[in-house]
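For this section, I looked closely at a protein sequence along with its fold in token form, which I now present.
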Amino acid sequence: MPTPLISSRLRRPLVAAAAIGAALVTAVPASAAQAAPGAASGPTASAAPTAPQAAWAAGTRAYLVITAPGDTSAVRGAVTANGGTVFASHDAIGVIVAHSTSPAFAGTMRGVAGVQQVGATRTSDVPADAYDPALPAAPSQSPTILTESNRWDMTQIKADKAWAVSTGSSAVKVGVLDTGVDDLHQDIAPNFNAADSVSCAYGRPDTRAGAWRDIGDHGTHVAGTIAAARNGKGVIGVAPGVRISSVRIAEPTTSMFFAENTICGFMWAGDHGFKVTNNSYYTDPWMFNCPDNVDQAAIIEGVKRAQQYAEGKGSLQVAAAGNSNYDLANKRTDRSSPNDSTPVNRTITNACIDIPTELPGVVTVAAMGNGNAKASYSNFGRDIIDVAAPGGDGASGVYSTLPGGKYGNMNGTSMASPHVAGVAALLASTDPGATPADLRARLAAQANDTACPSDSRCTGTTADNAFFGEGQVDALKAVAGTPPPARYFENTADVAVNDNATAESPITVTGVAGNAPAALTVFVDIKHTYRGDLVLSLVAPDGTVYLLEDIPDGDSADNVVKTYTVNASSEVAAGVWKLRVRDTAAQDTGRIDAWNLTF
């Protein structure tokens, strides 16, 4: 089934490709995540956010009230005096999140001394759930037999070579501002940082254990691309040694990211020492916010202040460019906003901006397919796109983690942005003292120049153009090194694989001191007329057996040509290693054509 690529606040299409452990993965309705929570991981659960002064009522709307940074107590008092309640406040940046049912609230507050701007953040009511948020369910987990292999997106940015130099530092924290993250996933749990995870849905921190969990699947997919563990299972992230924190800013049921949620997320990132954040969304309900509209001007100012606060605390924001094949440097129309009520066809100009993607200081990421080509859906724009990275296109999707221990493909600039966030995390690991400005400059410097195709929309030079910005990121350059020489051993002798029999092919490893690595690479080339008959294992010199793959019985395709990654760090490297191939059925036979080990 083709994967549709549509404009989405999540910066991705609604349908994902088939996943291990599921026949078809689709965008999960957020309401499905509202069942009673399972066992929580991480620190002891704290109380839900303190309720505002008044109970929720139908017609409640949310507003940003902007004042001078510092003590906002006088303006908070005016909010209450004029028919509103203070839902959250950020004195450091002079932003108050107010709720009111009064249609006159915004106009009245604009006349209050000390108030600089007031803007509605929605064209719909604040949900009642904001006042007593339900915890997302802890998804039941499906173990995987999938072993790590080098995927096209990782080889395209040379992440597989970078891992031989550095996998990143556990001192580097990367915030995933998204739909949440499944912290129980086998590939996420080893690197998950529960202590600094939170829900910012509705605009204020909810620190209860599990509040950060995924209400869909988008955030978990993003998190895996950044830092899935190098543990022999499933997939490997760009920076598998760094720590992931989940900041859920999407609201349940709608999966929308309103301005107060984004502001809360950036403030949290700054206060909790996130070196990098990934932002694969736009701030609802406006695809573009225009400064000549009083509501949207307040949204621009509030989110900009929060981003500047986070950057001032040492956090670099990386954001997806969007999936509309739209020229961000030549804005004319917006037909999809507001997306929380009834969209209208608006005429806009370049003064209108995508938030947070076009805020000053944010790294804007375009998507590439499998190869040095712009992904068909990716937004672009001269002097707006900073760098590019793999986002998938058509059948070549980005394969990553999904809630419940599962895996699947997605396409979108949402998938490109976390590749860049991972590279930025490697840069920060290499130089812990690097500032956000340093990281931005180094992302540009290490990117590989990518020339424009024969497309008149791609303006600029090979070094910096509308489609790819400074070029495609390069993880190997980011770690400022060259991988150590590979210690490579191969056996090309044919070994017959007969019906209902076991075949073994040996490799003698010499000259390698100490133990094998935690990511021993095993490449196999097996010719067979029905690979579903096969069970593949690696046998260590001491006889320990490592299952590479038990291929499903129904897989009727020919041959196995594949790379596996094995955590063999407990094994002495030197000695005789064996590839064991067991044929479990009759009729179809084959041979081990070749296999190799890379230490």
